[in-house]
Amino acid sequence: MAATQTRETLANQIWRACDILRRDNNCGGIMEYIEHLAWLLFMRFLDALEEEWETQASLEGRAYDAILDDEYRWRSWAARDWPADDLLAFVHGHLIPYLQNLGADPLRDTIRSVFAERNIIVCASGYNLKDVLQLINSIDFHSQDDIFTVSQVYEELLRRLGSENRMAGEFYTPRAVIRFIVEVVNPQMGETVYDPACGTCGFLAQAYLWMRGAERTIEDHHTLQEHTFFGQEKKPIPALLGLMNMVLHGATAPRILRKNTLEENVRQASERYDVITTNPPFGGVEGRHIQQNFTIQVQATELLFVQHIMKKLKPRDGTRCGMVVPEGTLFRTGAFGDVKRDLLG
């Protein structure tokens, strides 16, 4: 009972943080305050990971090479009692530019991808930011109970984002659909999993939860963390939300790229994968310069994604795909029939 109450209290604190962000002048809509919360949670989670890695290195008698320089680690700036204006000046003028220029290994590349090539939303009020930081500081990211609670609240926020946004499917696929597809394709340890339109990474996060039960060795752990999950997302905010979704579920270094998947010429497709799970955008229209990347040139984005997926699966028996498509996609004539013939050929 005490543990349940603790989870309820923590969940309420996270919702309080959302309320604070919602009232800020820079975070009027659900998209803005979820985005702001996401990057703060990402930084808090990273700090907890660094603490664990640092402790492990100490126990093994070796030096630890910190991911972030000391002044930019969460413990150094987020827990400090700043004057409100000085806090905002540090975040805008020092922290974000520093994070935008990280690199040299997969995890640093992941961090850079969160903050680069986009305007990061930051509270207009330093006082609001201080209040939110205090609430996030109360989360114990060394506790699996706390991580589970945060991930549950985050899932609910993503669900609300999907239901309140006019293009709901762009951001959120119902979790029952995701679980069913992942169970059917049954990704296995050692296989690569790819989502070419990953949005908020629901498919990749579920695939990680499905596969982690097979983790037996340090090599398995390394494989799952850095060499298994690949995703591409055209729009920056879903890419950020998706990366945070993966991190909260335990996959700390997935390869999530902000990229228009359909810009790749399928005739020259490079990296291929064992398993693909996806719910690509329907009803979109791409220009001629995009259509020229495909054997069957057509405006409908769902047909372009089907062709992309066929070229991105490894050319061997046992590769498989679970994809959500509009009703009738494979039972129409014209270009739809041509793609179907290629699929079945």
Descriptive overview:
The protein is mainly α. It folds into two domains: 164 residues, N6 adenine-specific DNA methyltransferase, N-terminal domain (Ferritin, Up-down Bundle); 173 residues, Rossmann fold (3-Layer(aba) Sandwich), CATH 3.40.50.150. The protein has 15 helices and five strands. The protein has a five-stranded parallel sheet. α12 links the parallel β2 and β3. The longest helix has 30 residues. The protein is globular, with a radius of gyration of 21 Å. The termini are far apart.
CATH class of the largest domain: Alpha Beta
Number of strands: 5
The helix/strand order is HHHHHHHHHEHHEHEEHHEH
Computed over alpha carbons, the radius of gyration is 21 Å
Instruction: Report the structural category.
Output: mainly alpha
**What is the level-2 CATH architecture name of the largest domain?**
3-Layer(aba) Sandwich
Strand order of the largest sheet: 3-2-1-4-5
Tell me the β content: 5-15%
Chain oligomer state: single chain
Q: Please summarize the sheet with the most strands.
A: 5 strands, parallel
In whole angstroms, the N-to-C terminal distance is: 58 Å
Q: Assign a percent range to the helix content.
A: 40-55%
**What's the CATH topology name of the largest domain?**
Rossmann fold
